[in-house]
Amino acid sequence: MADENTNVETPAPAPETAPVAAPAAADAAPAAPGQAPAAGDQRPSTSGDRAVSQTIWAEIGAGDGTDTGKVIKAKGSKNVQTGLVHVYATFNNTIVTVTDRLGNVLGWSTAGKMGFRGSRKGTAYAAQVVSQDACRQAMGHGLREVEVRLRGPGSGRESAVRAVQALGIDVTTIKDVTPIPHNGCRRPKARRV
User: Fold this and answer.
1) Which residues pair with 83 in a beta bridge?
2) Strands, DSSP E only, in 3-154?
3) Could you tell me if 78 and 139 are in contact, meaning their C-beta atoms sit under 8 angstroms apart?
4) Which residue in 130, 123, 125 sits closest to 138, CA to CA?
5) pLDDT 10s digit of each residue in the chain, 193 long?
């Protein structure tokens, strides 16, 4: 009996190997609805009515390293290819509105809508998040190419433009349309700090 217990084999440790590179998201097979995505898949999991269609992911290039997030095809999609991005950056807030060439709104966002409160609303990071949210809404209408119009002295001007480019939208021109008075209205009295 003692001999039988001493011959118990212990499992040998697994040899250490280099990690296997995951396949690129573009090369991976698309996951079926209701299934978890593959290990190398960069797409968010799809669930319920808010499932992201595979065709939109193919159009915007989910695996090329750009920050795409969720782009959901809008219900009343206007199918607009070109548009305008209006960035209103003040010291206290950032408002981004995406319109078509005629001025019809495709998407909009503000720092308060994105959950920023108080002094954080005027930061460059808040402007980046706001710009991405507004442009994702517009990309649901098929937007691909924009002209950016900046207004105001806030810190989120440049970061808002970079966020638009990071989503994969082509920026054709950038204009500063900050209103400058030619000695019109009297300025407010100077602050005494």
Assistant:
1) 146
2) 82-89, 94-99, 105-110, 145-151
3) no
4) 130
5) 555 555 555 555 555 555 555 545 444 445 555 555 555 444 444 443 333 333 333 333 433 444 546 666 666 667 888 999 999 999 999 999 999 999 999 999 999 999 999 999 999 999 999 999 999 999 999 899 999 999 999 999 999 999 999 999 999 999 999 999 999 999 999 999 8
